[in-house]
């Protein structure tokens, strides 16, 4: 067995990590109510970013991803008429599940992870 002991984290740092993880995972609120997965991350980001400046980075990453997903899904929907849109919709839908999980895990470890393929707006 490994004797790996992670470095102790201050309560304030742990709080930031927890909120950052919640910010990434709040995208799954879409499965409870369609708009909740967009509103929840934005509300968490806007309320907590002044209290925890580190959260501002995570908030921008998540909102950029949400806007990117809307754009990619719109393009995929239009392209379904020529059949190439179906794989695009499937890929974007899969990434919309995978990326928040990875982002949440990284945030809980104190890391900032930018979603690949996300368009930077903020």
TrEMBL record:
<feature type="transmembrane region" description="Helical">
    <location>
        <begin position="20"/>
        <end position="45"/>
    </location>
</feature>
<protein>
    <recommendedName>
        <fullName>DUF4870 domain-containing protein</fullName>
    </recommendedName>
</protein>
<keyword id="KW-1133">Transmembrane helix</keyword>
<feature type="transmembrane region" description="Helical">
    <location>
        <begin position="57"/>
        <end position="75"/>
    </location>
</feature>
<dbReference type="Pfam" id="PF09685">
    <property type="entry name" value="MamF_MmsF"/>
</dbReference>
<keyword id="KW-0472">Membrane</keyword>
<keyword id="KW-0812">Transmembrane</keyword>
<dbReference type="InterPro" id="IPR019109">
    <property type="entry name" value="MamF_MmsF"/>
</dbReference>
<feature type="transmembrane region" description="Helical">
    <location>
        <begin position="81"/>
        <end position="102"/>
    </location>
</feature>
């Amino acid at each position: 067995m490994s004797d790996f002991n992670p470095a102790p984290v201050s309560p304030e740092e742990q709080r930031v990590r927890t909120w950052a993880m919640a910010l990434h995972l709040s995208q799954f609120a879409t499965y409870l109510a369609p708009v909740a997965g967009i509103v929840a991350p934005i509300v968490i980001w806007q309320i907590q970013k002044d209290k925890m400046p580190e959260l501002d980075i995570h908030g921008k990453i998540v909102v950029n991803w949400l806007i990117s997903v809307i754009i990619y899904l719109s393009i995929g929907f239009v392209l379904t008429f020529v059949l190439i849109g179906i794989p695009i919709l499937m890929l974007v839908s899969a990434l919309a599940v995978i990326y928040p999980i990875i982002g949440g895990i990284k945030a809980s470890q104190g890391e900032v992870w930018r979603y690949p393929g996300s368009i930077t707006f903020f």
